[in-house]
Amino acid sequence: MHYVTNCGAINRGRGVVLLLLASLLSGCLALPQTGLFAFRLAVTSLGVEEVRIGPYSLQAGLDTSDLSSLLVSSLGAGSLSVQATLAMGLGLPAGMPAVEMSGFRWTLDMPGVEPVQGQYQQDVMLTSGDDAKLRLPVAFDIFATDTQRMAPMLDLARQLSSQGELPPGSELAITPGDLRGLGMTLPAGLFTPTIRLNVGEDGRLIPQH
Predict the structure, then answer these.
(1) How far apart are alpha carbons 177 and 102 in whole angstroms?
(2) In Å, how far from its chain's centre is CA 96?
(3) Is-contact 48 84, C-beta < 8 A?
(4) For the chain, what are the domain ranges?
(5) C-alpha span between 116 and 110 (Å, rounded)
(6) What b/e sequence results for 51-82 when a residue is b if at least 16 CB atoms lie within 10 Å of its CB, and e otherwise?
(7) pLDDT digit string (tens) for 116-139?
(8) CA 125, CA 132: separation in Å to the nearest integer?
(9) What tens digit of pLDDT does each residue of 10-63 get?
């Protein structure tokens, strides 16, 4: 009987030790994950540069008062392509550890045109206080045959070239790729949800919740 009692005490002791080890291990694993699980991507700037409309290469800030009539005469019965570069700053909130993001998917919805989307395929190093400067190609066509849609498209093209910024009401969505940092990797979509931003009347970036 004495032998059985000791075995029971030993088994209980082992159970306590295993429980403590499990708690310690789970605590150690949770510490490096905390920063990644709380991942927040910050779009710190958003501008438009290198605008090209058909054969015309335009610089932001130039007088474009005659641009609409010029584009209409160039359209004829065909179409004009509008190409621009979206300059974007990406960073992390203060205090977050640096991570490497394996690219991202993006969608830009501007008033008057169909949404434009693409895939940024390069790795991006993200740190707090030192934003990554990225360039995204944006392109759409102005069709002369669609008279109802031609006017807002022309207005959009003129605003992109004259002001160098996205028009109010635009929406940008970014879906981050895999995240690597703190000795681990988080697969895309697991703890990295799509980030959506609106462009306000004064050009401010307004996160959607």
Answers:
(1) 5
(2) 17
(3) yes
(4) 1-37, 40-207
(5) 8
(6) bebbeeebebeeebeebeeebeeebeeeebeb
(7) 999 999 999 998 888 899 999 999
(8) 7
(9) 444 444 433 333 333 333 333 333 334 445 788 888 888 888 887 777 765 555
AA identity, residue 180:
R
3-state secondary structure of 66: coil
Query: Position 140: which residue type?
Result: F
Residue with tokens 């290469």: 57
Tokens of 3: 């032998």
The whole-model pTM stands at 0.73
What CA–CA distance (Å, rounded) separates 129 from 49? 24
Ranges of beta strands (E only) in 54-131 are 56-58, 79-91, 99-109, 116-126
CA atoms within 13 A on the CB side of 81: 7
